Amino acid sequence: MEIKLGLKENWKQFSLLVLVNMLVGGMVGLERTVVPLVGTEEFKIGSDIVIFSFIIAFGVVKAFTNLVSGILADKYTRKRVLILGWIIGLPVPFLLAWGPGWNWIIAANMLLGVSQGLTWSMTVNMKIDLVGPRKRGFAMGINEAAGYGAVGLTALLTGYLAAAYGLRPQPFYIGIFYTVAGLILSVLVIQDTRRHAQLESALVTATSSGEKMHRPNLLWVFKETSFRNKDLFSISQAGLINNLNDGMSWGVFPLLFITMGVGLEGVGWIKAIYPVVWGVGQIITGPLADRVGRKPLIVWGMFVQVLGHIVIGLEFFSPLTSGLVGSVFLGVGTAMVYPALLAAVSDATHPSWRASGLGVYRFWRDIGYAVGALMAGIVAHYLGLIWAVHIAGFVTFLSGMLVWIRMKETMKK
Questions:
Q1: Is 4 among the domain residues?
Q2: Peptide bond preceding 169: is omega within 30 degrees of 0, i.e. cis?
Q3: pTM for the whole thing?
Q4: d(Cα 124, Cα 245) in Å, to the nearest integer?
Q5: Cα–Cα distances in Å, from 200 out to 125, 175, 197, 378?
Q6: What does the pLDDT look like over 338-351, one tens digit per residue?
Q7: How many domains does the chain fold into?
Q8: What pairs with residue 206 in β-bridges?
């Protein structure tokens, strides 16, 4: 069968990958509302740092898995790595539902981090492989919309299930469906896309930064993406700070709003609205990144997130309303940033090492989960939960300014 690049030419496989990434995102959504409360109410943990340890474990493991996912994809094919990710994720909902102690929850999150690092990385790489260079923003917008839309809807559903049936085990039953369905689809209907990447590699002479085709080792890619290339450095730090916000909100928001008198259903809505707006918004911002460029969306997306922190941190309205409005701003800002960052990395890396470059970027981005949770735990211990929101807003502003000053536009006109 002849290999062609483009969304129209590969729409069936693209659509199936969208469905798979909805299941991938749903696995993260399982934890957004319920797990912090399992720690405080079921296991009676009083330390914020200990409570947030499950996010730290998830973020660190996912980040390092992202780092090697590109190498694994190039060596063993995208499809095999995708299947492996689902197999590793199979025990997660069972551990979350019936784990007898907090260490079991942390173990579940370590497995979830590996699973997410493999499955989500592959859906990103495979969609980029299929569509080619002209529709990268659109492809990433659809991919992340599917994933984070499922995160939000699952967070909302688990909030209602927890309010109706208790914190465990019922809210985690849907995770069993997600893992089984994701594995079946990945084995039976998803096709590998490495030949599409090889076709594009043969057609590309140089990237937006002038980089020509070669096959560098991971150390070279890590240095180039992390600090040697100023555009990739700007992108990587923005990704880290963006997920710092998510890691902070993941742990802080359920505890903060419960102490403010918001019920489980209300917390579920607050935790759902952020990733739902984030996800659905990328249907618009992904294609927009292909029209106006990457940099404007990254810079102004960071500043819109700052507005979300201000609304929540200064409590302009009632606790529930502040949480909802602030989460909308956080979601809109993240929707602007997310597909633009992924598309910008793809612009600045040659197809011959793009999977590894995306892996390094996603390493820094997802380390943000751990950094955000650790920062929130320390700050909450000494200053209170609300100060974690203030500090996250301040560093987000600094990150947006750095992109504004240092990064040049990566999209080819």
A1: no
A2: yes
A3: 0.84
A4: 22
A5: 13, 36, 5, 46
A6: 889 988 998 888 77
A7: 1
A8: 212
